[in-house]
Amino acid sequence: MKRTWAKGRKRPMTVASGAKSVARIRIPWTLVAVLVLATVSALAAYQLVDYLGRAPLFALNAIEVEGLQVLDGDDVLAASGLAVGTNIFTVDLQEVEQRLEEVCWIERVLVVRKPPDRLGVEIVERRRAAWVELGAIYGISRDGVLLPQDRAAGEPEQVLNLPVISGLETTGDSLWLGMEVRDPALTALLRWWEEATVADAEFCHSVVGIEPLKGDGAKLQMADGLEVRLPLDGVGHRLQTLRRLLPRDYREYPAPAYIDLRFAGQAVVGSKETG
After folding, report:
1. Would you state the pLDDT for residue 11?
2. Which range of residues forms the domain containing residue 70?
3. For the chain, which has fewer Cβ within 10 Å, the N-terminal or C-terminal residue?
């Protein structure tokens, strides 16, 4: 509280309640200069954006697409919703990316501006990892996304030899291309299959069917009719063991029906009579 002195008195007295002091505020010239420059810059930026958004020089003439194998440029253009002549600086790049990622074959996409008149589109396509039986036979990617029933023009013929995953609880109701099939058994089998093709691609060429087994196992149907039952863990080690045992099993059992590796330290071989 501010104090003042009255004439003839030695004791101080206070200013009456309600009295206010007036303080002067000085604004540094540097702050004024910064505010002026910021205002000018904002106006200049606005005018630049307005110019870029209207200038005929920046009308879309073409899109440059990278990463295509299954799709082609016309497919991408149609799915993007872009039109020739659209100003590239008015295009919402994120919106275009979202539209493209609705295509079942497209896993990831990045769209960038390439002035004066182009957009660049970088695409990571999905690949068919296997087939899956869900009322009908569909393709399935490694991340569990449903793909078309027929081989696409850009796919290699080898996809026709991929195994069919069956025996799932998921039915064919309410399915659409591009949806992620959330079936735990399917997810586990796709993960196993991806590891198996890396560990022993030659062996995997002979696998024509895969089914889940209770207790985290898989049943493989081989091209020669043999059924292989094995756990899902230790993929590389299991396949090495199987490779080592198969020649002996075929010698001892001329027509084995199955070989079961789910039991620790042993392989159980069954004939067609015993099942």
Report:
1. 46
2. 56-125
3. N
In a domain, residue 247? The reply is yes
Distance between start and end Cα atoms, the chain = 101
Using the structure block, give the residue that is written with the tokens 């005929």.
56
Q: Does residue 36 belong to any structural domain of this protein?
A: no
Does residue 23 sit within a domain?
Answer: no
What is the value of pTM for the model shown?
0.77
The rounded distance, in Å, linking the Cα atoms of 127 and 145 is 10
> Would 63 be classed as within a structural domain?
yes
Could you report the per-residue pLDDT of 179-191, keeping only the tens digit for each?
A: 999 999 999 999 9
Cβ–Cβ < 8 Å for 147, 128: yes
What span, in angstroms and rounded, lies between the C-alpha atoms of 171 and 134? 5
- Crossing angle of helices 235-252 and 184-199, rounded to 10°: 80
Contact 140/181 with Cβ under 8 angstroms? Answer: yes
Model confidence over 200-232: pLDDT tens digits?
Answer: 999 999 999 999 999 889 999 999 999 999 999
Residue identified by tokens 């505020």 is: 25
Judged against a pLDDT cut of 90, whether residue 253 lies above it is answered with no
In a 13 Å sphere around the CA of 64, the CA atoms on its Cβ side amount to 9
152 with 221, same domain: the answer is yes
* Structure letter (DSSP) for residue 15: P
Residue 41 and residue 138: Cα distance in Å, rounded? 56
Instruction: Tell me which long-range contacts 69-72 makes (C-beta under 8 A, separation of at least 24).
Output: 69/125, 69/154, 69/155, 70/105, 70/125, 70/152, 70/153, 70/154, 70/155, 71/103, 71/105, 71/106, 71/123, 71/125, 71/154, 72/154
Query: Are residue 249 and residue 176 in the same domain, yes or no?
Result: yes
Position 2 scores a pLDDT of: 40
Do 165 and 207 lie in one domain? The reply is: yes
